[in-house]
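Revision sheet: structure tokens.
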Amino acid sequence: SYLKNIRREVRNGNMTENNMLYMPNFSGMPSPSTVSSQSEYGVWMRETIMPRMQVVNRAHKNFELYPTLYKTSNLECERVYRELHTDILEHEDVYFNYIFHVNTASVHCERCTGMLGTLCTILRQRGALKDCLDVMKTYTKVIDRYGEQSSLPNVPFPQTQCYKGLRYKYDIIRINAGMQSNDPEMAIPAFRAAVKYEIEMGITDYEKQEWGWVLEFMLGVP
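Predicted:
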């Protein structure tokens, strides 16, 4: 089984307990049944999966832990976000066939969505629009896959709400990037989606609205 294979890797010194905690249960993972295939499985894990997971975990540590503990900003963590983006581009088949597989635990897709969105914002605010739009392509693929994972039967309600919230943040980023790059085809659909989300969630407070206030301003109705 998956857990037995992981435990064996730990005993053999090929995986630390820390890595084990953050390894997803991959769909499509080889299922060794002989000594020979078990050996091949171990090599596959070490050479194909574990290096990718180390990149994801390193980026997430900077994304969630460091700003809280050391009062650093996500801007200071840009290097590891760029490393994550580059790694996804270079190993797209591994990420989308295993780590982000539709039937795989969604936590890594969720985390990478947030980190890529943060990188897009950093680049846009700096005025590096070309780099921002390049990252946006990967960001879109990852959040779309998270959407697929969150649309499966029996998905917990908190996950669907998490996806909607991340999609809303994605739309806000696309509005800003579209306006800054004079691309209405990017900005307008994102604007519509963002306003729809605010209406559906009952966000009526001006302090909390991002774009819903525009309707009242333009139409004179709440």
